[in-house]
Amino acid sequence: VQLVESGGGLVQAGGSLRLSCAASGSTFSIRRMGWYRQAPGKQRELVAAITSGEGSTNYADSAKGRFTISRDNAKNTMYLQMNSLKPEDTAVYYCYARERIWPREYDYWGQGTQVTVSS
Questions:
Q1: 84 by DSSP, 3-state: which?
Q2: β partners of residue 94
Q3: Torsions phi, psi of 75, nearest 5?
Q4: CB-based contact 77:23 (threshold 8 Å)
Q5: Could you give the C-alpha distances from 24 to 60, 81, 89, in angstroms and in order?
Q6: What gap in Å lies between CA 32 and CA 51, rounded to an integer?
Q7: For residue 1, what are the CA distances in angstroms to 5, 11, 29?
Q8: pLDDT of residue 27
Q9: Which helix (H) or strand (E) holds 11?
Q10: Residue 111 contacts residue 4 (beta carbons within 8 Å)
Q11: CB 78: neighbour CB atoms within 10 A?
């Protein structure tokens, strides 16, 4: 599985961005995808995730009400719509996918895309 993110950039506080993650390869075996972020000097943290089957989602408390994760199965693409951005959202955002080939699971990461929110 290969993951390629796009859509990062510089935005003012209160603005919006939409990140995209295009998956290729053995996408049929992906069971879960998500977005993580890592700010300078901090650990990587989960922002939002979505399952491949039911499309169940979960969000970090910091993302609830502002971010929306979604997927387009036909395009093998996942999105993160980020609204009401704050300076503390500044980080490198990474796309993540978990592939399940029973009985094992494999994790994949994209290269990351920078999101910078100015105050």
A1: coil
A2: 36
A3: -100, 0
A4: yes
A5: 26, 21, 28
A6: 4
A7: 13, 30, 9
A8: 86
A9: strand 9-12
A10: yes
A11: 28
- Whole-angstrom distance, CA of residue 67 vs CA of residue 76: 20
Q: For residue 118, what are its two tokens?
A: 């100015």
Side chain identity at residue 23, one-letter code: A
- pLDDT means over runs of 10, the chain (119 residues): 95 98 91 96 97 92 97 93 98 96 94 97
Question: How many other CB atoms are found less than 10 A from the CB of residue 103?
Answer: 5
Task: Write down the pLDDT at residue 53.
Answer: 82
Query: Tokens 């979505």 correspond to what residue?
Result: 50
For 55, which DSSP code? -
CA nearest to 69, candidates 77, 57, 86: 57
Q: Quick check: helix, strand or coil at residue 5?
A: strand
